[in-house]
Amino acid sequence: MGVMAKNRIAIVEDEADIREILEYTLTREGFEVEVATDGTSGLEMVRSSRPDLVLLDLMLPDIDGLEICRLLKADDQTNSISIIMVTAKGEESDIVLGLGIGADDYIPKPFSRKELVARVRSVIRRANGMAVMVKEGSVIERGRFKIDPSRHKAWTNDIEIELTATEFRILMLLARHPGRIFSRSQILADARGELAASFDRSVDAHVRTIRKKLGEERNLIETVRAVGYRFAEEEGG
Ligand code: CA
């Protein structure tokens, strides 16, 4: 009942053109938008207004975006606010760092409005727990693909896929969080949690093998260039 509160988005971006596109597009999509043109005022704005999501440019004239991300994630008052990094070419290593300190996603410039809105909605859905609800231990099904953590088994077309323990763990990590990007080091850290000894090959090699085993469902694992991997989101979800 009643009107759903609008999701609030803070934009921290020093380039006027991009700031205007972000503000215009997201306002039109029905979000409540506030903007800051540098890091210091952006940080202040986010701390006082506590939006649902921050679109954070990495290269700012005063405090850089990564530092802002670090400060917001280190503070109990602001660490639940979602962060999407707005990045330029050549900032891949910063993207990896940002994901490691808690940023949720990134949008590379130049972006299409469609892509922007899709990523924003996806992160908000995930933050609200409205994304595919995957409880610990429950079976995940996507089209012809199915994975069962309690039985440590996966299938395509009801045919079991033979996976090593490490491959299973990587696939499970990705499948439990559709749409979320994991960097190679995050995948490695997760796999090492239980399988240090058997984790002797690179993440890329494991993913290559998993894809081969997925056959027609191989596109469920998407490569995020220079950053890592993610499990495909459901169409139109
Ligand atoms: Ca900038």
Short description:
By secondary structure, this protein is an alpha/beta fold.
- What is the ordering of alpha helices and beta strands? EHEHEHEHEHEEEEHEHHEE
* Overall geometry: elongated
Structural category is alpha/beta
Integer count of domains: 2
How would you name the CATH homologous superfamily of the largest domain? Response regulator
Share of helix, binned: 25-40%
Q: What amount of the residues lies in strands?
A: 15-25%
Ligands bound, unique = calcium ion
Strand order of the largest sheet: 2-1-3-4-5
Tally of helical runs:
8
Biggest β-sheet description: 5 strands, parallel
What is the terminal separation in angstroms?
22 Å
* Strand segment tally: 12
User: Oligomeric status of the shown chains?
Assistant: single chain
What is the overall pLDDT average? 89
